[in-house]
Amino acid sequence: MIKKYLLGTFLIVFCLGNVKAQETRQIEIESAVVTSHEISINGKRVPYKATAGTMPVWDEDGKPMASLFYTYYERTDVSDKAKRPLVVSFNGGPGSASLWMHLAYTGPYKLNIDDEGYPLQPYGYSENPHSILDVADIVFVDPVNTGYSRIVNKETPRSTFFGINSDIKYLADWVNTFVTRQNRWASPKYLIGESYGTTRVAGLVSQLQNSHWMYFNGVVLVSPTPMGLDREGPVASANYLPYYAATAWYHKVLATELQARDLDEILEEVEAYTIDVVLPAMAKGGSIDPSKRNEIAKKMSYYSGLSEKVILEHNLAVPTNFFWKELLRDQGLTIGRLDSRYKGIDRTGNGERPDFDPALTAWNHAFAPAFNLYARNVLNYKTDLTYNLFGPVHPWDRSNENTGEQLANAMRQNPYLHVMTQSGYFDGGTDYFNAKFNMWQMDQNGKLKDRLSFKGYRSGHMMYLRAEDLKTSNDDIREFIKNSLPAKDSPAKY
After folding, report:
1. Could you tell me if 112 and 221 lie in one domain?
2. Is residue 211 part of a domain?
3. pLDDT tens string 47-78
4. Last residue of some domain: 326, 358, 390?
5. Same structural domain for residues 49 and 174?
6. How far apart are CA 457 and CA 426, in angstroms?
7. Mean of the per-residue pLDDT values for the chain?
8. Average pLDDT for residues 82-88, to the nearest whole number?
9. Are residues 224 and 239 in the same domain?
């Protein structure tokens, strides 16, 4: 049955049981549509139920300010929820909905794409045999103004939602309510965030731990941002070289002897050269000996596929925008920012940067129609609201960001808390070597290294779009969860 309530000018719809949500352009402050399913994961039957709905964010007076859309997947043949892990999943942007990891990574369905992640027609979806639903329940959350989530009190200041710290605060309140309503306080809990979502979950784990006294077993950082950790100046310029080498290797523009070697072997060498030679040279700036500068430019050219002339013209510090335009310029092609395996065509061959990101353009092809179909046909959630892949959340207040250090502090305070980073080698937006750099800065004294781990993949920002990495990256999360569950009655102490 459907129960309807009016609160001010907003319609509240409570959908109880396996019923359809009302089709409306009005905001449903609270709603839930429950459907039952079954999937085969790694060859084993997994029955589950999906709850697609909305739940409010309240102000200090208990009045709804916004309503967040979520999708919650629960395995139904589990008798003891206290032992069942719960994963709370966010994407990034800021301003991005949760559909990316929802419909392509950890959820029970995946996009209709080819094995390398390119869109296929007809657009659609199929079962995901690599979902982590066999080992954990998952809730995918759309922050305010993304997906079907909306502000419901127009008098609420936008600053309540749209900033690094305000985003963390209201989402922590929402997660606290969700966990309480679902009676999951005893469950081992995990946060996973992608891209800006890593900034979000790094701050959330600290906020939930210190303001709501909710402790987590793990955080998964997928293609992490800087998270407020200092990597400016020479570090910012030097650290891109390993990514440049990986991309040049993929496009087969390196010297024959380098192309013949395995990527992992090359990257280990380039990483060492970056730290030992390039970074000190960048720090010296114009004071470096000209012959030494030329020697380094020659080596950087060898590793990056760019000419020595171009590298010297940029004082060794080649910007990423220029790299994406320059690497295949002689072929009349650009390469993708978020996944440099993808190629694009610009209006002209000259210029300093590509006209567009061919990777993101390709992904939008597949995701938008697939999720709109999936919400109606599988989740049975029907609304006339537009599902915002990217919502209006700007201006975004980026001041006082300290989420990387907040995550490190949470780890120091909570001996149970583990962190895994996942990065694609061909991601130029949040490159893999800077993701490693994050880990080093979070663990200056080396006391956390046994609870920090890194996994790299031969793909880009959304490493899971490549079929081989979809399996591997989900397996890595599965193992991460299993390995971060403490033994029964194991005390949280050092």
Report:
1. yes
2. yes
3. 999 999 999 999 999 999 999 999 999 999 99
4. 358
5. yes
6. 8
7. 93
8. 97
9. no
Does pLDDT of 26 surpass 80?
Answer: no
pLDDT tens digits for range 428-458: 999 999 999 999 999 999 999 999 999 999 9
Residue 494 within any structural domain of the chain:
no
Question: Is 275 part of a structural domain of the chain?
Answer: yes
Q: How far apart are CA 389 and CA 87, in angstroms?
A: 21
Pair (346, 449) in one structural domain? no
The label of the residue with tokens 């892990």 reads: 85
Return d(Cα 266, Cα 270) in angstroms, integer.
6
Phi and psi for 457 in degrees, rounded to 5? -140, 155
**Backbone region of residue 50 per phi and psi (left: phi > 0; alpha: psi in -120 to 50; beta: other values):** beta
* pLDDT for residue 364: 84
- What is the pLDDT confidence band of residue 231, given thresholds at 50, 70 and 90? confident
Instruction: Please report, for the chain, how many H helices and E strands are present, in that order.
Output: 15, 16
Tally of domains in the chain:
2
Is residue 348 exposed (0-12), middle (13-18) or buried (19+ Cβ within 10 Å)? exposed
CA atoms within 13 A on the CB side of 483: 14
Query: Are 352 and 376 found together in one domain?
Result: no
Q: Which of 358, 393, 423 is the last residue of a domain?
A: 358
Cα–chain-centroid distance for residue 408? 19
Q: Domain span at residue 327? A: 234-358
CA distance between the termini of the chain = 52
pLDDT for 3 equals 34
CATH number assigned to the domain comprising residue 9? 3.40.50.1820
pLDDT digits (tens, 9 = 90+) for 289-346: 999 999 999 999 999 999 999 999 999 999 999 999 999 999 999 999 999 999 999 9
Count Cβ neighbours within 10 Å for each residue of 161-183 and write b for 16 or more, e otherwise: bbbbebbbbbbbbbbbebbeebe
Q: What is the mean pLDDT of residues 158-169?
A: 98
Are residues 177 and 132 both part of a single domain?
yes
Asked if residue 119 lies in contact with residue 110, where contact means CB atoms within 8 angstroms, the answer is: no
DSSP 141: E
Backbone angles phi, psi at 83, to 5 degrees: -100, -5
The Cα 309–Cα 301 span in angstroms is: 9
Q: What are the residues whose beta carbons fall under 8 Å from the beta carbon of 257, sequence distance 6 or more?
A: none
**Mean pLDDT, residues 222-242 taken together:** 94
Structure tokens at 335: 């390469």
Q: Both 44 and 177 in a single domain? A: yes
pLDDT digits (tens, 9 = 90+) for 270-298: 999 999 999 999 999 999 999 999 999 99
Name the residue type at position 307: S
In a domain, 124, yes or no: yes
Angle value at C-alpha 353, between 352 and 357, nearest 5 degrees: 170
- The pLDDT of 79-103, averaged and rounded, is 96
CA 153 vs CA 29, 69, 169, 204: distances in Å: 11, 16, 18, 24
Strand partners, 113: 119
Q: Are residues 387 and 264 in the same domain?
A: no
